[in-house]
Amino acid sequence: MGKVKGLATAATKTRYGRIAPIYDLMEVLPELRYRSWREQLWEIVRGELSRGSRLLEVGVGTGKNMPYWPHEIQFTAIDLTPGMVARAQRRAAKLGVEAEIMEGDAQSLQFLDDSFDAAAATFVFCSVPDPVLGLQELVRVVRPGGSIFIMEHVRSKNPRIGKLMDLVNPIVRSLMGPNINRDTVENVKRANLAISDVEDLDRGGIFKIIHARNLASSGGDSN
């Protein structure tokens, strides 16, 4: 990882470490909207994966998705920030959820190639310093043919709203961490993932569920 990218990753880790103790409190109002979307995402996952499938959740945060995790799936979850990991581990214990939860960087995953049948992330690739690199890492660790499920907010296609998001983005990024003006759909394509479906969650098309597949061959062999 280059020096600039390393510094950006360290800054992201520090920022989220600072807000980890109050993160759930900060998200109370947004979660009123997000809960149904989280449930919708994990219903899609449940419909796609078979019992015993191995899924990696990147950017687990404090574990907000855990109430919706399909019980028949084997979960591994990572987060960049120790404070978030600790809170996710406590939530898993409280909910009786079995999962391996650990620190990890989406841009440099500690797992072997083809370790998982699928991966998921919710509101994560808005914060990863190099989102395409992070998505390429998912391509590496998810088996060929496996699914990647992403819920994200993206830059509005409306010219006026998009420009406003560009103006506000530096403030939001410095205070909260995420970039609100990324084109995650395009980033998924740049990572050489095949998009199966993109579903708009709001009328403005800012919030989306992206379902993509890893069509890369394993070990350089063609499928």
Which oligomeric form is depicted?
A: single chain
- Beta-strand proportion: 15-25%
SS summary, helix count:
7
Spatial extent as radius of gyration: 17 Å
The beta-strand count equals 7
- As for the number of domains, it is 1
CATH topology: Rossmann fold
CATH class type: Alpha Beta
Structural class: alpha/beta
Give a written overview of the molecule.
The chain has helices at 3-19, 23-26, 28-48, 82-95, 131-141, 159-175, 184-190; strands spanning 54-58, 74-79, 99-103, 116-122, 142-153, 194-200, 207-213. Mean pLDDT is 92; it is low at 219-223. The two termini are 31 Å apart. Strand 4 (116-122), helix 5 and strand 5 form a beta-alpha-beta unit. It is built from seven helices and seven strands. It is an alpha/beta fold and 223 residues long. It is globular and about 45 Å long. The chain has a single domain (3-66, 73-220), classed as 3-Layer(aba) Sandwich (Rossmann fold), CATH 3.40.50.150. Strands 3-2-1-4-5-7-6 form a seven-stranded mixed beta sheet, with helices on both faces.
Provide key terms for this protein.
disordered C terminus; 223 residues; Rossmann fold; alpha/beta; single chain; 22% strand; 7 strands; seven-stranded mixed sheet; 41% helix
Describe what is shown at a glance.
This protein is an alpha/beta fold. The chain has helices at 3-19, 23-26, 28-48, 82-95, 131-141, 159-175, 184-190, and strands at 54-58, 74-79, 99-103, 116-122, 142-153, 194-200, 207-213.
Secondary-structure blueprint of this entry?
Blueprint: H1 3-19, H2 23-26, H3 28-48, E1 54-58, E2 74-79, H4 82-95, E3 99-103, E4 116-122, H5 131-141, E5 142-153, H6 159-175, H7 184-190, E6 194-200, E7 207-213
